[in-house]
Structure formats: structure tokens, C-alpha cells
UniProtKB/TrEMBL annotation:
Keywords: Membrane, Transmembrane, Transmembrane helix. It comes from Flavobacterium faecale. The chain crosses the membrane at residues 25-45, 51-69. This is Conjugal transfer protein TraF. Pfam families: DUF4133. InterPro entries: DUF4133. The lineage of its organism: Bacteria, Pseudomonadati, Bacteroidota, Flavobacteriia, Flavobacteriales.
Amino acid sequence: MGNSVYRINKGINKSIEFKGLKAQYIWYFGGGIVVLMILFSMMYFIGLPSFISLGIIGIAGTVMAVKIYKMSHKYGEHGMMKELAKRQLPTVVKTQSRRIYKMRMLQ
């Protein structure tokens, strides 16, 4: 009994991955599926024929899946947040006075 073998979990700080989707993209995919189910039920209650509803949902689901997989592969776990932060940076900083720079030089 003294020779117990314990397996070590080597993925302890890795992000979650499911069938190629990484981190938050799993949630986006799940949310998209919920939205598509709600859309299908709305079309059903309106009285749209089932085959037309299934066709619309099938096409929308395929487009959604392709876009989410592309984002997951392009940006990875944190890349989309970095890209959104990069877009918020100003390209040019304009000022009418050099007073702030002069004050820093005196300190």
C-alpha cells in the first residue's frame, strides 16, 4: 500500500477549452444557441411553417458558429479584450498649452 501513484494535473492554470472554443467563446456560443431557440419559438408561435423556421435557424446557427470559431482562433483567450482596448487608445493627443510639460520639468 505504500506505493500509491498519484496523477498530477498539468493543466491547472490553462483556460477552459471545449471542441476548439476557448474561454469566453464557450459562453458566447451557448448564448447564441439560447437566442436561436427563442427565435425559433417566436417564429413557431407566429405561425411560420416549421421547415422555413428550421431553414432560417439552421443558416443563422451555421453563420454564428463559424463567426465564433473564427474569433476564438484569431483572438484566443485574451486577444479580443486586448483588441477592444487597443481601439480605445487615442491616435493623437492635442494640447493648446505646454504648461503641463513645463511643470514636470521644474519638479
